[in-house]
Design goal:
TIM Barrel, 5 domains, 44 strands, 31% strand
Length: 757
Amino acid sequence: MREIISLNENWEFYKGVAQIPENEDGKEVVNLPHTWNAEDGTDGGDDYFRGDCLYRKVIEKKDLPKADKYFIEINGANSSADVLVNGKNKAHHDGGYSTWRVDITEELTDSTEIAIVVNNAPNDHVYPQFADFTFYGGLYRNVNLIAVNNSHFDLEYYGGKGLVITPTIDGKNAKVEVEVFVKDLTDGQKLVYTIYDKQEKEIDKIETTDTKVAFEIKNVHLWHGRKDPYLYCCEVEIVNGDEVLDNVCSRFGCRSYKVDPENGFILNGEEYPLRGVSRHQDRKGFGNALLLEHHEEDINFIMELGATTIRLAHYQHDQYFYDLCDEKGLVIWAEIPFISKFLPNGVDNTISQMKELITQNYNHASICFWGLSNEITMNGADDPALIENHKTLNNLVHEMDKTRLTTMACVSMCPMDADYVRIPDVVSYNHYFGWYGGTTDMNGPWFDEFHAKYPNQPIGVSEYGCEALNWHTSNPTQGDYTEEYQAYYHEELIKQLFTRKYIWATHVWNMFDFGADLRSEGGENGQNHKGLMTFDRKYKKDSFYAYKAWLSDEPFVHLCGKRYIDRVEDVTKVTVYSNLPEVELFVNGESIGKKTAPDHFFYFEVKNVGESTIKAVAGDFSDEGTIRKVDEMNQDYILKEKGAVLNWFDVNAPEGRFSLNDSFGNILSCFRGKLWALGLLGLVKKKMKAKPKTDGEQKSMTDGMDMKGIMPMLSGFTVLRMTNMIGMVGISFTKEELLKLNKKLNRIRKPKNANKK
């Protein structure tokens, strides 16, 4: 009978080496899950360690169960790894997010040394290489030893279970095809297939030597998303007489679905709007080496939000999290890390990672979409090799899984007319109008245009969002990183996207702030702060509750701006979110009125005198905070860049003249501003050419980009913010250069119609 033994404890860890050094210099003892980038991968500077690290452990045969075969199971080694047993190289694996196994039976001795060399250094053939997140290195998921009989379910085919379950709905019944992949069955052995209901009651059983059987479940209980995530279980045993030699089991759900270009996602014949979030798998202090309780906490927050879907970006996530999605009834988009920049030498890796993703996750009821790629056309959508790679992946998915749909996330600049956009079954776009460029009101019309032009192609939103930290203002503006602007942005996007039911899915970028060591934005370097919650999961930003008001049935009321106490204005705006029909606001115990809001966003004008206690009441629920009248803006609320060459308040900004504190879009509104911008573009290009590059360097993501196309997208940002953002790709400006640019801007008069953004 199969036994699984955890090998997570007491590994020797050596950083920066592929061989154990003499005298074991630098040895640490660590437990798994483990990453060597938990700290340096989230502190900014794009200087986190990327290279070889070695994990070593000795296992004693006397401590192992008796078996015919022994396999090491590695559930996540980022991004490439070699397994050595007693010094002999047994296996190499490229791809940091999937399960893979190594047969160590022949090398097993009384005392066996297991060494795993893990490498996350840049290269030209393993995805991901260029992306806006940290590529944490390490054995960051569980490592096990699996002991099995000679006759066993296949452990070596792309990391799967050797068990494939395909349910299809036929009226009130379900046909359930079950296929297994076995090794070394002998005469007299048979397979016993059993189906159980959610209460573990046996429904049906088949005993046979066939590796493929079919069941019928009459009056099937459907898996119906969050409303009713009902799961069955299938167990298959290899039996010899009365002895069970090996067994595998998997839960599954019976459901039907489709995507209608007019009505969105249809689950079991009913409209079921997919409104949700994207999720990265890391958190503060842990990197990607998450514990089970972290996964549980994450999904509970997502459930509280009211989401019906998650895009699990940009790679295969932990099996435990997919299990939780099955149990909670969330509809999942699962994808491979084919992202940002096409690698001609990485085609085979996209295929192997896709095979692993599907093979290992085929039985999950929650997964309805396989993602082919993300923003892969940043350098253009016309490369024949890139298009062929996508067609190959799309065909592979449909060959391996005839029940699910393919999708992909297109970068905003990708033309909606591109042939590339027509490849998958459904498509989504990453748009940041109102953050990286344009204005919030551009989002809905863009999708209307796509829908009108391609009415038979389902269109969704795979990413949208903006960054917010603990900065505050009563006059939120695009690019200011305040919690107030993020709340405003999401109010506007919710109203535009959620009311267009043809949009087949919406996924906020992102549920949680996440590590991106190359970033230097918002005053806290090394993170992307677009999350609805902070990196440590300790704080729900106001925008979290905007979604809860639209999506959750759990009654609540939330007073926004509780971290924004000191305010200079005489009358201040107070915003309340609730899914209840009416909100009453009290100031120092006195009601200032009741309001209704069909959009769930309630706005009040409050006199700001002295210190006031503000209380919002909706039904039986209340929330309260404090505001205080001050004469000058609290400097703790104002963005100050960490390590910035210049901050906005150091910039000379004469009245009626442009400065680095003006938005790029406003500067482009006049002829002299356009000439100035061309000079800036020339300086950027000069710096790009002068920047030394290393083969496979992450920052070379800018190579081949159309900077003329990128710059206008950033039109909502001030020039100072843009120069800081360009620093993320290794192009920096000195203080003298910035002051010189500002001096030139000061010579340009603002047009009368130049509106601040």
